[in-house]
Amino acid sequence: MDPEAVVADHRRLVGYVGGGEDPEDPADVLAMAMVLRIEKSDPPDRTGLLTAAARAVALLCLDHRAAGDGPWASAMDDWCNARIRKIARRARGSQWAAAQEVWGVTATEGDAEARAFVPGRVGDLDRRVKKLQIGGTEVDGRLPTEAPGHGVVLWTNPGLDMTVGKLAAQVGHASMLAAKLLTADEAIRWRLAECPLAVREATPERWRALLDADAAGAAVAVRDAGFTEIAPGSVTVIAEIIRN
Question: In this structure, what are the phi and psi dihedrals at residue 46, rounded to the nearest 5 degrees?
Fold first, then answer.
């Protein structure tokens, strides 16, 4: 790992403000594709799958290839200067194996696996990923509600009903926004440790406290554009850092 590259990547995430207008041609929209491994005979646990998805995004965003003159730097710059989009698909068997050949980063949590790909034009998406199914991506299980002792925590909104595919994109967004809460030195240590994080469902009481923390700058909320499943402007996930 190159600490200077992580610092450069971290600076990009801290400077990200979002917003902007979409291009007229839908094919010109910039998006990060994500793939969740969901084998038909042995699907993963929901918590593990969402954790792997969020970690894959964080690892990609802080990868040395995304900094400086790296091969992913220009694509990451363009994506972070546009309206952030993430689209999660599902794969199994040979589909999953083929997806590993496309530029990106795979993360695991227990027996769950997810891969985040270098962002680019929707119209240029690699056929090995483009052919994978988007809608109806779901697995069983419930997220725990108890807070871990320390570290990056991504809290989901208890009042929203989202498929695991939708939520994977949301926690992926939250993991990159969590970098705003880290110092450069903390970001280096986090990346060196392979970006450990926890995905939890907030209780209604905790969610209200997290909204207050977001307003005070002590946490960072993801507000969805509302293209699928939920209303525009909905707060889907809030990232916070629990420090000892």
Answer: -60, -45
